[in-house]
Amino acid sequence: MSRLRVASQLPEAFNSVFAANTPGIEIVPVPAGPPAALPDAAEILVAAPFRKAGGLLTPKPPAGWPFDLKWIQLVSVGIDFYPDWLFDGPVVTSARGSSAVALAEFALAAILASAKRLPDIWIDSADKWTAQPLKLIEGTTLGLIGFGAIGEALAPRAQALGLNVIALRRSDLPFPVPGVARAESVADLFAASDHVVLAAPATDDTHHIVNRETLARAKPGLHLINVARGALIDDNALLEALDDGRVGQATLDVTYPEPLTPDHRYYTHPRVRLSPHTSVHTPDTRINLAARFAENLARYRTGVPLADVVDLTRGY
Known about the structure:
By secondary structure, this protein is of the alpha/beta class. It folds into two domains: 4-98 and 282-302, Rossmann fold; 100-274, Rossmann fold, CATH 3.40.50.720. The protein has helices at 12-21, 100-115, 149-160, 186-192, 212-216, 235-243, 283-302, and strands at 4-8, 25-29, 42-47, 71-74, 91-93, 141-145, 164-168, 181-182, 195-198, 222-226, 247-252, 272-274. Helix 1 packs across helix 7 (283-302) and helix 2 packs across helix 3. The radius of gyration is 21 Å and the shape is elongated.
């Protein structure tokens, strides 16, 4: 089997896992961002995001693009971190599902931490030895905005802990997880849910899907969790709802932009739990991405259509 040359914009921690899972390839590291050039005979580009949320997208390289590439593998599911011109040439595949378990666990951890008031109940002196009221998550309702790989991973885990799960998705197809109920609208989902997890891509349809109208219908004390994209939330509307208590807590692993400006209220708001887009940074993400790449590489070598090809009309 001839060796394929793969240009990778990922760090060595990823490249070494890729190499271990895909024999017969030569991985050549290249800088992140729009490539001004690529190694000779490179057929495949593993592309890191070209920007962070809210950053500028750079123009198409002045000459040479796409440098005889046959396939581009993204390391994210969403395509909003990449310019439109990237999708005008070779086939582009996404990293669908590679971080689904990590994101599902993060969302569940946020739900449990909120109900059990972690870490606020930890004490460091005898004078604080006073029992604190906690909440159960059993019997509460989890609403999912979007039901792709993250929803498929999160729903059964939540059900195992006794949560009822309702979801909203663009497709009319049945949910692949038994027992998940379909919400009729975003407003209905927010009205019925104790916890809402945003797990949808950033598209024109989902931009500011969480807004004043949505939050006006929210169940009092709602816990909003965002592991998708910051652009799904109208920040001013959310802050108003947090201020007046309609939203009890917001756990935000993603924002728009990233990073937030130093004076942003999310940093200091007592009802906000903010983390720096870190939920996907687990070893399994690298392993899963490498495994999916290896599966697609086998397809590529045999001329079979690739899996997880980006659909521009869907936004992922």
